[in-house]
Amino acid sequence: MDDSGAPAENRGNSGKANGKGWTEERVREWRSLLAIAVAGFCVFTALSGLSIWLLPFNVANQVTVLLHTLAGLAFLLPCGWYLVRHWRRYWKNPVSHIQLLGYIGAGAFVACLVSGLILTCQSAFGIKINYAWDLVHIVTTFATLAFLLPHIILIVLRDRKAREAGSPVGVPEMAGHYGKGALVFTLGCGALAALVTYAYSPGRLQNDFPAEYSFKYGKERPFAPSLARTASGRAMDSCLPSGSRSCGTSGCHEQIVKEWESSAHRYAAMVEFDATDDQGKLVFSSGALNPKGFISPGAFMFKAEPVDQYGNLIDRHNLWEMVGVRYRRSLFPGFSDTAEYDFFCPQMAPVRARRFPQETSYHIEAPRDGTRILKVQAHLYYRKMDQFLLNFMFGEKKGLTAPVTEMASQSRTIEIATPTRERLGK
Questions:
Q1: Does the pTM exceed 0.90?
Q2: What is the mean pLDDT of residues 140-166?
């Protein structure tokens, strides 16, 4: 935009030709496609920025964020070139209040562009934005509007007044063309945002309780005895919560994920141990699952058993009643643990065995029918949810069981010593 009158040497009768050329240059500047595009960009990004800042974050605003960011990246260099070109055309003119408004507005505009670029980089490559830069971006947006709008309006009013006084200045008409072009650009970007919002088809969420859901404590308390609740009072589609792994790998909650990885909820596991003789007959078993999904008593477990104030096990996810833990044994990532299953042959005298911290022993009586070897197998299984909790939530008649994953397994053959050789098999 033109921000001053013609230079002093263009004034007077002797400079009419130069004055006419100066007026034509100002008209060309108002008609410049670059100037119109930059003005439209400023208006659209200002309006879209205010929308992002003030309105609720919905689909339309998410689309606005994308277009706001893409427009800022696309116009970063054109805006910089326009400001440099505009400054070079008018910086030699006498300083006026209009020119000062332009300089201050241009400085605020540059700061707004730079802060927007920094916020974009932080959003794309970091885990959060710096709110100091966010504040700079907001403040410079208002500063740009506060100085550049009066800069343009005062130029139009000045030239309109000059034309009424008899000066052949065609700037007011060109300013109208300039304003219409900027308006078309802004409306086009707004129409694109509306079109993308309309074309977006979100996934259908299933937030209704299944027909067989048990409202044991009444339909007005669908999650009882838990104190959990949802804003709608309805169920929540399983696709809404993100996975715990994505929270950590994206860099947002790395410490929380590390703490969760070592918790009993994540690594609740049991050891299944079987011993068979050389005929395939089962001699000893521990940790096996029965047909209903329950683990046999006495199994070696990696888990935590929280209890309430009466010592009862917290087995319905009623964590608000938890006051302590009666048993805790965890298998941390990258660590190992030992579960010893030791037994003595009947012919041998008992031998005091070395005990390790938290050692669990299972005694197996070797067969007396001439068996020479025992085949033992140990499996480390992982299961996410206890069978009792599944039955409590969905009912035993459903027959639901949690999937069991084998984490590790080992097998060995043990030789049994004869009475004459009197040695302990290993």
A1: no
A2: 86
